[in-house]
Each structure stands twice: as structure tokens, then as C-alpha cells.
Write a structure and sequence with these properties.
Elements: H1 4-21, H2 26-35, H3 39-51, H4 56-64
Helix pairs in contact: 1-3, 2-3
């Protein structure tokens, strides 16, 4: 059985981080992604890029360099 409390907690944390980072530029977000140790932090940054219209392939390319 899936534990919805864990799912909601993670989602809330990711959304909170995302809201804190939304005003950062693409370069700032890329640098923060590369130095992040927290998976939720990385998920939040990916969500921001998706909302800005980047495709999965473009996002992958941004983080490769």
C-alpha cells in the first residue's frame, strides 16, 4: 500500500524549495543543481525549468556541462 503522507510531505517540501528558487536565473539554477546534495532540491529546480518551457532533453543538456 502506498503511503500518501510521505508523498505529500515530499511534494510540499519540493514546492516550498521551488517557490524559494523561482526568481533565480537559469545560470544560478544550474550551478545550484550541480552543487545540491538534496534530491528534493534538485527536483524543485527541474520543476522550475519545466515551467519555463524547457523540454526534458534540454534540461538534461543543461546539467551535463
Amino acid at each position: 500500500m502506498f503511503n500518501f503522507k510521505i508523498f505529500n510531505k515530499v511534494s510540499t517540501e519540493v514546492l516550498t524549495i521551488k517557490n524559494d528558487l523561482e526568481l533565480n536565473s537559469e545560470i544560478q539554477l544550474i550551478n545550484k543543481y550541480k552543487t545540491a546534495h538534496c534530491e528534493n532540491y534538485r527536483k524543485a529546480i527541474i520543476l522550475i525549468f519545466k515551467e519555463r518551457g524547457y523540454t526534458r532533453a534540454e534540461i538534461s543538456q543543461l546539467f551535463e556541462t
